[in-house]
Design a protein that fits this description.
By secondary structure, the chain is mainly β. The chain contains one helix and 39 strands.
Length: 524
């Protein structure tokens, strides 16, 4: 009769096999740490599609004195959800799921005027497990609305990572009345491990292909299909992680219809979650290169003829921080926009909360020319500017170790800082942001974030820093985006202080912007 089943969860309890059936037919089975007594938090299952039907919940075993089943209740509200999005460790402009665990972003795609973020989701546990595809949508890449999970475990296994495409030419035949289908391509991680597809005509309800799998197991654990339409060869291309003879490889396949796949070639040296896309160098459409990357965000640049990727670089370092993994880029962003936008899994542990982990801010990727050849840059998307509420601005400031702190009166919980400066060759510029220390050492041309150092070259004697600080993490950018340092970090709630000083040498600061940010989540 109601929208949700609320399930009592106890972190660290024995996992019980919980099967949900509708009118006597099993629908999904999960391993859940059910609370026999007082729960730590409440998980929820959306049962609105089954209104008026009989839903049964069966557990394989429970202690005789367990109250787990008796505590399960129907409701139109999430039990204990009065403070959703305002919890102490909820990132306020980094996406996280209402409840449970999230990891890899999946199926990033623009469809019907919305950006779709699918992701690895355990709706019924604080830790990894029960892999579903969570689902959220946004019209601006900043404010997200979480929707019911798009894919749940089935007879072929849990739902592992993958991608999504809009089938504009209806090669699958899933489209109706001129409406192109949104197609999800995912790994079903049972035994064997296989690749499958599902589709939707409204971006809300998804139907798994009745002839799944579309690609059988190659070796155990092959996974994470990334698919795109290759216009020159007029066919779909899939990159897939395959471990072959103890070697990490990315296999390339082609298909006319997303249902029948043919092996093309392979590239060695990349592990999990491949992504493959073309970018112009220096925004020049006449000079494009292909980028192959994977879970670590290391990448190669090269050419692709529709069959084989030919690297022109060795494997290059990607992000330079910690807690960033399995990033993916959006498909089907309109040509009028033309950006390549990436989101990564931000490994921000939130103990004591009914949710765990988050996503990075969306990042715009570009290829720029350097003295060593073309290289990727990462910069935060411009849409994040809509979160700015007030600004503290400094221009043309010369700093020495004796200077007073220009940010002494600035305070912020959620903050974006932008700094452009010219250091002398002996200088060290130090920002302290809510207790985090972010410094630039001109002697070594390194950026140091909470003791973690990363190369950040000066460009024509100048440096620019962009710092985002949320309740659970920092994202720091330098050298025009050539250096990207994500860093999980939990500031003390009462520490809103900001400071700036030079500990060595002289720095000519041409501009500093300190923007207080508002939450991206809806007001309760």
């Amino acid at each position: 009769e109601n929208r949700y089943l609320n399930l009592p969860n106890k972190n660290g309890a024995i996992k019980r096999t919980v099967t949900v059936a509708v009118d006597g037919q099993p629908v999904v089975t999960n391993e859940i740490e059910l609370a026999d007594a007082t729960p730590d938090w409440w998980a929820f299952m959306d049962i609105s599609d089954w209104r008026g039907k009989t839903v049964s919940v069966t557990v394989d075993k429970l202690p005789d004195d367990s109250n787990a089943l008796a505590q399960i209740e129907q409701s139109d509200a999430i039990k204990g959800g009065e403070n959703i999005y305002r919890e102490p460790l909820r990132g306020q402009f980094h996406f996280s799921s209402k409840r449970g665990w999230n990891n890899d972003p999946n199926g990033l795609v623009f469809y019907n005027g919305e950006y779709h973020l699918f992701y690895q989701h355990n709706p019924y546990g604080w830790s990894w497990g029960n892999m579903h595809w969570g689902h959220a949508v946004s019209r601006d890449l900043v404010h997200w609305q979480e929707l019911p999970d798009a894919l749940a475990p089935d007879r072929l296994g849990p739902m592992f990572s993958g991608s999504a495409v809009v089938d504009w030419q209806n090669t699958t035949g899933f489209g109706r009345n001129g409406q192109p289908p949104l197609v999800l391509i995912y790994t079903a991680a049972g035994n064997p491990t296989v690749q499958c597809i599902a589709f939707s005509l409204d971006g809300r309800r998804f139907t798994k292909f009745d002839a799944n799998p579309v690609l059988n197991q190659i070796t155990g654990g092959n996974r994470d299909p990334k698919v795109f339409w290759h216009a020159p060869s007029k066919r779909w291309i899939m990159t897939l992680y395959v471990e072959l003879n103890r070697t990490h490889t990315i296999h390339f396949f082609s298909s006319p219809d997303l249902k029948n796949w043919t092996y093309l070639s392979r590239t060695d040296g990349f592990f999990e979650c491949p992504d493959f896309f073309e970018l112009p160098v220096d925004d020049n459409p006449a000079n494009k290169k292909w980028v192959l990357t994977a879970a670590s965000s290391e990448y190669m640049i090269g050419t692709f003829d529709g069959t084989k990727f030919v690297p022109e670089t060795p494997k290059l370092p990607g992000h330079r921080g910690r807690g960033f993994y399995a990033a993916q880029t959006f498909s089907d962003i309109p040509p009028s926009d033309g950006r390549r936008i990436q989101i990564g899994w931000f490994q921000t542990e939130t103990r004591g909360m009914p949710f765990n982990q988050s996503m990075t801010v969306p990042l715009e990727l570009k290829l720029i020319t350097t003295s060593e050849g073309p290289r990727l840059t990462w910069t935060p998307i411009k849409e994040l500017h809509i979160l700015r509420t007030s600004t503290h601005l400094l221009t043309s400031t010369k700093l020495t170790p004796e200077s007073s702190d220009p940010l002494a009166n600035a305070k912020a919980e959620l903050v974006e800082i932008r700094a452009d400066f010219e250091p002398d060759n002996q200088s060290i510029l130090l920002f302290t942001v809510r207790g985090a220390q972010i410094s630039y050492d001109a002697r070594t041309q390194k950026l140091i974030v909470n003791g973690h150092a990363a190369p950040a070259p000066l460009l024509d004697g100048r440096q620019n820093l962009v710092i985002y600080c949320d309740r659970t993490g920092l994202e720091v950018f330098a050298s025009g985006g050539l250096t990207y340092v994500p860093m999980p970090f939990q500031p003390a709630p009462d520490n809103l202080s900001l400071s700036l000083k030079t500990t060595n040498g002289h720095v000519n600061v041409t501009r500093i912007e300190v923007h207080n940010l508002e939450s991206a989540w809806p007001q309760q």
